[in-house]
Design goal:
Elements (H helix, E strand, L loop, with lengths): L4 E9 L2 E6 L2 E7 L1 H10 L5 E5 L2 H4 L5 H10 L4 E4 L5 H10 L3 E4 L1 H5 L2 H10 L4 E9 L5 E5 L4 E6 H10 L4 E6 L11 H8 L6 E4 L5 H9 L5 E4 L1 H11 L11 H5 L12 H10 L7
Length: 282
């Protein structure tokens, strides 16, 4: 087993960091740059930024945030949301991103994976797969934060994006995302055994035990975590300031989290993995 990477995921709406359940019901948490700087200083291996409303406008609007973040943070930064063309990819890479995450564009035009990987290198191209379990036990891929049905089988799609040249897959269980109920181990194991490129898993972390389970039983290469890290940051920093009137600020001031999530830090997550004899970057 390679070193397990621990990657905070930051979902962005306008100038704000937001968090929801099943990728919906978004609450404003604060300024993404402040969270990103905290995660970098506390041992994050990489960061993932996702513009969660980009599909509404057909473009990614994170360029300024990326540029500000890249000045102070020297770990790989993956950016996704609203990237439709090779030119879009080029623009966010120029702004300071190290990798890009594609979902809708890749679904609609799979050849962009091949074209982008040839132009920028396969290690630069991450394919995001938003998976929802069906009644028959299969998994279908969705777009637009799990709202748009594609009818595409997740397992077949994962194999195809690897064939087209993607360097990594970011796999989100929409069913588990934001619930704190744990990762979908069956989904992760199915995909990890079918591909040879690294698999980043997102959606469901609520306790430290969940990260060791997905690293071992799920065979994940990297773990992307949002809520548990964000709420740990809020509790430690009493962070309630925002430039926006959006969001439920009483939620922040109350210092409450979703009932199934026990906040934990990047440092604690790595210490826990090491205690379980799981390799990770210190």
């Amino acid at each position: 087993m390679n070193n397990i990477r621990i990657i905070p995921r930051l979902d962005i709406k306008g100038p704000n960091l937001v968090k929801g359940i099943h990728l919906e019901g978004l609450r404003v948490l604060g300024k993404p740059e402040d969270f990103a700087r905290f995660y970098y200083e506390n041992g994050a291996d990489e960061l993932i930024y996702v513009d969660v409303v980009a599909s509404l406008f057909g473009r990614n609007s994170l360029h300024d945030i990326i540029a500000r973040t890249a000045k102070d943070i020297f770990i790989p930064l993956t950016v996704g949301g609203g990237l439709r063309t090779v030119e879009d990819i080029k623009a966010v890479l120029r702004a300071g991103a190290d990798k890009v995450s594609l979902n809708t564009a890749a679904i609609h035009n799979p050849q962009i994976i091949k074209e982008a990987s040839q132009k920028f290198g396969s290690s630069t191209i991450v394919i995001s797969i938003e998976a929802i379990r069906q009644k028959d036990g299969s998994y279908l891929a969705f777009t637009d934060n799990g709202r748009e049905h594609t009818g595409i089988d997740v397992l077949s799609w994962a194999k195809r994006v690897e064939e087209l040249g993607a360097g990594e897959i970011l796999l989100t269980s929409v069913d588990r995302e934001g619930t704190g109920l744990g990762f979908d181990v069956d989904l992760t194991k199915m995909i990890s055994e079918a591909i040879s490129i690294p698999l980043i898993v997102h959606g469901g972390a609520g306790r430290l035990e969940h990260i060791s389970e997905i690293a071992t039983a799920g065979q994940a290469d990297a773990i992307a975590i949002a809520g548990a890290f964000h709420y740990d940051f809020i509790l430690k920093n009493k962070y309630v300031e925002s430039n926006s009137n959006e969001g439920n600020f009483e939620f922040l001031k109350s210092e409450k989290t979703f009932s199934k999530i026990t906040p934990f830090s990047i440092e604690k997550s790595k210490e826990y993995l090491i205690s379980k004899k799981i390799k990770t970057r210190i």
